[in-house]
Amino acid sequence: MTQKQRESVVELLLLGMFADGSLKASQDQKLLSVISQIGWQSYQTPDLYLQSAIAKARDASDTEEGTRFRLRKIGESLETKELRQQALDYLAEFLAVDGESGRGAGFFQLARANVGGPG
C-alpha cells in the first residue's frame, strides 16, 4: 500500500466518523490502531496529517454530493479491488466500534457503492 492509499483509508474512516454523527474516543483509538496496522511513511506524523484530513472530511460530509465525491476520489486512489475491499473492511470495523447502527450502516452502503467500483 502506498502512502497515498494509506491516506485514502484514513480519509474513508474520517468520513465514517462524521457520517455516523458520533465522535467518540473509542473511534480515535480505532483510527490510530488502523494507522498502526497499515503503516505510515510520510514526512508528516499521523497527528499532523489528521489535522488537515479532519477538516477535509468535515467539509465533504456537509452534503451527500460532497461525500459521494470524496468517496469516489478515495476509490480511485485505491487502485485494485483488493485494496478497496480492505478499506471497506476497515470501515466496517470502524463503524462497529460505537455499537450503533443507523446512520453508520447507511454510510457504509454509500461508501460501498462509491468506493468499491470495478477492479
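^ that was protein a. below is b, sequence first then the C-alpha cells
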Amino acid sequence: MEQKLIKEVRALHLAKRRKEAGMFIAEGIKTCQTMLSTGKFKPVYIFSAHTLSHLELGLKTDATIKVSAKEMSQISQLKQPSDILVVFSIPNTPITTMKSDDKIIYLDNVQDPGNVGTIIRLADWFGIEAVVRSFDSADFYNPKVVQAAMGSLAKVNLYEAELSEIVGEKIVYGTYMEGTSIFETQFIDNAILVLGSEGHGISEKNAKYIQEKITIYGASNKIAESLNVSVAAGIICAQWLRTS
C-alpha cells in the first residue's frame, strides 16, 4: 500500500479534509456491510486486513484492497483496528430533498460525536426519517459518529440546516428541564424534536420556534442534574412512537 494513499486516508480523520475531499471512513464488518448493501453511499476504497469475499461485503465484484495489520493500524482511528475499513463518498443531500411529512430530530449545537451517532441509531430504530444538525453540531461523518451509529447512517436521511429553514407547518417540540412531561404529551407525526447542546440546552436563536416545551421528570431525590442528550432522545423517541 503506497504511503501517499495511507496519508490520504488518515487525513479523513480531520473534518477539514473530509469536507475538502468529500469522503469519510467507516470501520467494522457490520457497519461496512450495512452501508455497502444499501447503496446510499458510494465506496471509493475498501481495505481489508483479511480475506473477505465480495458477497460477504454485499458487493457485485471483488474490489477490496488487501492490507497488512500494520497498514490497517496506520489508517484506522480505532485502538484495535477492525478487519475492514471503507472510504465512502459524502453524498450531496440538500435540505430541499427532505419530504414535507418526515419526522425530524434537530440537533442544536450537539457537539459530542458519540451522542450524535447514538441519536442517528435511535432515529433508525424508532422510524424517524431525518436527522438535521445545526452547523455547530458534530459532523455526521466524524469517525466517532459513524462508529456510534453502527450502520444507521445508511438508514436515516441526514441534513445540515438552520432550524428556521425546516419549520414550515410542523409542530416543534423542544427539550427543557421544565416543561410538560413527555408522558402527558400527545406527540404527532408531522413534527420536529429539537435536542439542545449538552452544556447549554436549546440556543436562544432556536428557542423562539419551540411550540411545546417537553421534559422527562426524574425522582425528587436525584443527584444527577440532567440526562445525557442521547439517553433523553431514546426515552422521548420511544414515547413519540407509542403515542403518535
